[in-house]
Structure formats: C-alpha cells, structure tokens
C-alpha cells in the first residue's frame, strides 16, 4: 500500500515539468561546481605529490562537492515537498485517500517514500560525476559512501520536515516558505553556539554539523541518531496532523 | 437478519466548535436499498456523509458499516464503502485508466483482478472510450462519471454519493440516475441531493434532514400517501361566488386565485369533489373550461416540513438558512 502511494507520487512528479526542470537545473549547477573543484585539484596536484601524507582526490573534490550538493538541495527540497499534502487538500482529493482502507501512517509513509525515490534519483545523477573520476584515478570508496549516506539522511530529514509543513496548510507556497525557513534555521542554528566559548547544545541541533563529520568520513552514531530522530519526529507529527483532520475542523 | 443491515447509525452528533452541524441522528440502510438524503443547504447532509465514510469523526454516537464499527476498526469498515464526495477527488494529471488503477490498488484489489475490475467499472459508468484521456481534459459530466467509477470499483457493499448529478446536463443526469438504480441491485446506495424529483425517481426511501436533525424518514411509496391530492383547480367561464363553490358537496374550502380561477380543497382521504363540481357547473351554467387535480409534490412536503420546523424555532438564523 505504501508503495502504491509512493509510486503514484513519483509518477505525478514526472508528469509535471517540475521534476524534469529540477533534475536539469541541479545537474547543471552541480556540474559547474564539480569542474571548479576538479580544476582546483589539478592546480594543487604538483604540491600534493611533495607532501608525505597528502589528502587524496576524494577529499579534495568529492567532499566539498557533496557539501555543495547539500546546500543546493536545501533550496530544492521545499519545492519538491510543498505539494505533497497541501495540494491534495486544495484539490479536494485528500478524501480519496482518507476514505480508502489505508491508515494515515500508510499515507504519510507512502508520500515520504515517493519523494525519497525522487531525491534518490537526484543523488544518483550527481554521483555519476565523481564516479567518472575512476577513469583517471582511484576513489576512496569508504569516504564517498559515507558522504553519500550523510547526504541521503540529510535529504530524508529535509523531506520529513517538508512533508510535515505540507500537512499544515492548503497552500503549497506557504508550505514551501515554512519548510525553507525551518531548514535554513536548522542549518545555521549553531552560529549562536559558536560565538560563545562553551558548547550551548544548539550546535547539536545543527544539520550542518552532523553532515560535516560524515563528509570527512567519520561515521559516528551520534550523527546517525540525530537524523533518525529528526525523520521519525516529523513523520509522526505528520501522521498525527493527518489524523487530526478527522477530529475537528 | 443482522447481515441485511449494511449501515447502522446510532445517535450520531457532530459539532464544529459550538455549532451543532448534526444532532443525534439515527438510521439504518438495508441491503440493496437506495436511500435519499434530502435537505436544504447547510442542513448537515455532507457532514453526515463525511462521518459515514470515516473522513470525519463523529463527536458522539456510533457508526456501523456491514457489522464493523467505523471508529474501532476504520480500515476494515472503509473497505466496505465507496465514496464520491461533493467535489470528485480526481487527479487531473492522470489518465482515466491510470487513475482507476491507482484507486483499485488503494482498495487492495489483487493484481490478477485489477484489469477486470477497472474494465467493469468503466463499462458501468460509460467510460470505455475515454480510458486513455487525461482527466483534466474531460468534461464535467465525464469527470463526475470517473468519480462514480472510483466509488464502485471495489464493489463495496455501500456506495455513498454526495450530490452526484450536480453540474450535469439533462441527458447525463438521466444516465447517472439509471446507473444509481442499477447499483441499488447489488449495493446499498446513500445519495444526497437537494433536487427533489431526483430523489423521487431513484430512491426507495427518503430522509429529510433539516438543521442537523432528521425530520422525516419514510419510503417513497408511503410518501405518495402524503402526496394524495387534496385540492382541484377549476377554471370557470361564468364564475359563481366563492360561497357557492364552497357549498358543493365535499369541498371544505375555496381559495380564489383570480376572477375565473379557484382552488377547491377537500379532505385528503375523502372523495374528490371533481364530479360534483362538473355536475353543478352544468346545472348552474358556470361554463367549466378546466379542471386539474393538484397533487401535493414531495417538494411541498419538503417545504412544509423544513419551514414548519423553522417557525417553531426561536432563532432568527433559520430564515437565513432558507435564503441560502
């Protein structure tokens, strides 16, 4: 049932020009950054060979590339998630799902899986760029996979937050603005923590921090737990919001 | 015996804030029955339907669909229901086939029966020729049909249609009514409308709901009894005074419409005075040109019931309701 809804969601995305436009734009921008980082690496290469324990191609090209991808997708995610529930509410199609024998949990999970399907396609397309480097040299597979995992978890969190925002309103644009605000806030929340001398706990909330460790190839359970907590919290909130639809208006 | 009652609603109420949209409604729908739900705008028809389909939780009371409690076991209960809301829930970007396939899967129709279920729903609703077309490009009538197809695709025991003929042309309305009557054979149908002839022609039983309360529930046949003629309109070329007419045997009162036109009332269950009037007209040379028995229509009953309810109510809001 989850996959039925997920499949419909994915199909709906590709039926509108939006999905294609987003794929194209993201691909062009990331390719441009990829070329910049690659150029930088080529310039550095003579100096690197002189160093005894020099950083490799992966940490100079792929890690910063993935950091850029995270930033770009933060801008894109609200656009993808804004329509999930709000548009159904607006077009009055929500009652189709609500009167079908499916639970609110299945509806939310279906939509989440659907949008993650699309996010995975974006990630896969982007991955093709660093993979093309294997023609010229070797890639640190561990580092790249850890970065990829970080990106995937980050996108899951983006989607969960966006999905929740979408359940709150009947206006897709309001959902997009709300999601963007929350994501940006969670991204930069540790700015306040950094100014003070001691760790204020705000830095724990920052998505950026948790992502950076994974980009450096450090697989720490604290980061993973952070993302899982974030995803489940917002999915549960969405389910509850959808259930509340029945209770009052 | 228990199994023959498909829908059972007991003491259901629903509040929106402090507004009482539906007040203590109880009714039952039997197998194969077509129930018409009638009421002025804002009477609580749609709210009741949303509660029946599990879209809205009742504030009080109990809803049992095919023996399954909607509140305790919503998933199982919903599997027995097909619902067409006021605005058909259509994804405009999908083709009719894609959309129906999605609906069928939502209702857990197994893969091997999927195609046959879609085909039969399309055939029943006359959609065979438009399967490949985008729903957004279809006319309103066809969209409405897709909505109905969606509601019957899993052959539920109860089909609930909220104003299914709104916005259709007369031919389409006839087709949809025909379809509803056909559905009545195997499914139970609950139908809401404010179009009275529609209810009269398609339903077995009528319920009139007004300001959240059930004010009348009867079979259409029994309603006919209410509708028995109780007055005749006569047009006379050489009219006598009203008192002369009142003197005719069987006539209880006379209403003067204009110079030659009169309405003669009589006891609803008594003998019609038509014959006596004709005889008197010949004798007295009233020159009778027209004599029409007036049947009280469902519409009149409806108006009588809904307005009498209101006049007994002290709030002034009622008159606004009627205006709306």
For the secondary structure, the number of strands of chain B is 14
Q: How far do the termini of chain B sit from each other?
A: 42 Å
- CATH architecture identity of the largest domain in chain B: 3-Layer(aba) Sandwich
The helix tally of chain A amounts to 12
Mean pLDDT of chain A, to the nearest integer, reads 88
Order of helices and strands of chain B: EEEHEEHEHHHEHEHEEHEHEEHEHH
Radius of gyration of chain A from CA coordinates: 20 Å
How would you classify the helix and strand content of chain A by structural class?
Answer: mainly alpha
| Total DSSP E strands of chain A | 0
Helix coverage percent of chain B: 25-40%
Mind describing the biggest β-sheet of chain B?
A: 6 strands, mixed
Q: DSSP helix count of chain B? A: 12
Molecular shape of chain B: elongated
Fold topology:
The complex is a heterodimer of chains A (249) and B (324).
Chain A lengths: L1 H14 L1 H34 L6 H25 L4 H5 L3 H6 L4 H29 L8 H28 L3 H17 L1 H6 L6 H4 L1 H9 L5 H27 L2
Helix pairs in contact in A: 1-6, 2-3, 2-6, 3-7, 3-8, 6-7, 6-12, 7-8, 7-11, 7-12, 11-12
Chain B lengths: L4 E12 L2 E12 L3 E5 L6 H8 L7 E6 L2 E2 L4 H5 L2 E4 L11 H11 L4 H14 L15 H13 L5 E5 L7 H17 L1 E6 L2 H7 L2 E6 L2 E7 H7 L4 E6 L5 H5 L4 E6 L4 E6 L7 H11 L3 E7 L3 H14 L5 H7 L1
Helix pairs in contact in B: 3-4, 4-5
Short description:
Chain A has 249 residues and is mostly helical. Chain A contains twelve helices and no strands.
Description:
The complex is a heterodimer of chains A (249) and B (324). Chain A has 249 residues and is mainly α. Chain A has one domain (2-247). Chain A is 82% helix and 0% strand. Chain A is built from twelve helices and no strands. Chain A has helices at 2-15, 17-50, 57-81, 86-90, 94-99, 104-132, 141-168, 172-188, 190-195, 202-205, 207-215, 221-247. The radius of gyration of chain A is 20 Å and the shape is elongated. The two termini of chain A are 27 Å apart. The mean pLDDT of chain A is 88. Chain B has two domains: 2-225, P-loop containing nucleotide triphosphate hydrolases (Rossmann fold, 3-Layer(aba) Sandwich), CATH 3.40.50.300; 228-294, 2-Layer Sandwich (Alpha-Beta Plaits). The two termini of chain B are 42 Å apart. Chain B is elongated and about 80 Å long. Chain B is an alpha/beta fold. In chain B, helix 4 crosses helix 5 (140-152). In chain B, 40% of the residues are buried. The chains are: A mainly alpha (249), B alpha/beta (324). At the A-B interface, helix 1, helix 5 and helix 12 of A face helix 2 and helix 3 of B.
């Amino acid at each position: 049932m989850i996959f039925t809804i997920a499949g419909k969601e994915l199909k709906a995305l590709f039926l509108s020009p939006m999905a294609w436009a987003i794929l194209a734009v993201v691909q062009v921008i990331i390719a441009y950054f990829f070329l910049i980082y690659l150029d930088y690496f080529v310039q550095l290469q003579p100096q690197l060979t002189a160093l005894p324990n020099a950083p490799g191609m992966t940490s100079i090209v792929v890690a910063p590339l993935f950091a850029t991808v995270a930033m770009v997708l933060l801008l894109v995610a609200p656009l993808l998630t804004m329509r999930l529930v709000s548009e159904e509410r607006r077009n009055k199609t929500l009652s189709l799902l609500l009167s079908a024998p499916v639970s609110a949990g299945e509806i939310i999970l279906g939509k989440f899986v659907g949008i993650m399907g699309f996010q995975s396609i974006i990630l896969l397309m982007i991955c093709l760029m660093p993979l093309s480097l294997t023609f010229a040299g070797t890639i640190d597979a561990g580092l790249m996979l850890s970065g990829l995992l970080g990106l995937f978890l980050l996108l899951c969190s983006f989607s969960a937050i966006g999905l929740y925002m979408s359940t709150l309103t009947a206006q897709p644009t309001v959902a997009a603005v709300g999601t963007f605000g929350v994501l940006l806030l969670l991204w930069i929340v540790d700015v306040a923590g950094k100014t003070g001398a001691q760790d204020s706990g705000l830095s724990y909330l920052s998505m950026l921090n948790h992502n950076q460790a994974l980009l450096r190839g450090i697989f720490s359970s604290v980061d993973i737990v952070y993302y899982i907590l974030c995803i489940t919290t917002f999915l549960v909130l969405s389910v509850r919001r959808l259930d509340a639809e029945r209770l009052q208006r | 015996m228990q199994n023959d009652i498909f829908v059972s609603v007991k003491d259901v109420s629903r509040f929106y804030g402090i507004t009482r949209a539906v007040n203590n409604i109880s009714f039952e729908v039997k197998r194969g029955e077509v129930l018409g739900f009638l009421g002025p705008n804002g009477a609580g028809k749609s709210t009741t339907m949303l509660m029946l389909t599990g879209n809205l939780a009742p504030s009080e009371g109990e809803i049992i669909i095919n023996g399954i409690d909607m509140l305790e076991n919503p998933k199982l209960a919903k599997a027995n229901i097909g619902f067409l809301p006021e605005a058909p829930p259509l994804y405009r970007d999908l083709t009719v086939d894609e959309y129906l396939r999605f609906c069928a899967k939502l209702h857990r129709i197994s893969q091997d029966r999927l195609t046959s279920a879609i085909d039969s729903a399309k055939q029943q609703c006359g959609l065979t020729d438009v399967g490949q077309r985008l729903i957004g490009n279809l006319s309103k009538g066809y969209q409405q049909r897709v909505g109905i197809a969606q509601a019957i695709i899993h052959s539920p025991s109860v089909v609930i249609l909220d104003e299914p003929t709104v916005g259709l042309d007369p031919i389409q309305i006839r087709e949809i009514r025909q379809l509803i009557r056909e559905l009545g054979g195997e499914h139970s149908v609950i139908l809401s409308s404010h179009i009275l002839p529609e209810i009269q022609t398609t339903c077995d039983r009528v319920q009139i709901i007004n300001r959240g309360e059930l004010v009348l529930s009867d079979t259409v046949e029994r309603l006919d009894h209410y509708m028995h003629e109780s007055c005749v309109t006569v047009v006379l070329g050489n009219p006598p005074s009203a008192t002369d007419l009142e003197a005719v045997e069987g006539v209880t009162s006379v209403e003067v419409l204009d110079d030659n036109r009169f309405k003669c009332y009589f006891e609803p269950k008594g003998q019609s005075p038509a014959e006596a009037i004709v005889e008197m007209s010949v004798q007295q040379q009233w020159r009778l040109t027209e004599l029409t028995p007036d049947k009280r229509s469902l519409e009149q009953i409806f108006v009588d019931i809904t307005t009498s309810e209101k006049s007994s109510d002290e709030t002034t809001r009622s008159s606004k309701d009627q205006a709306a």
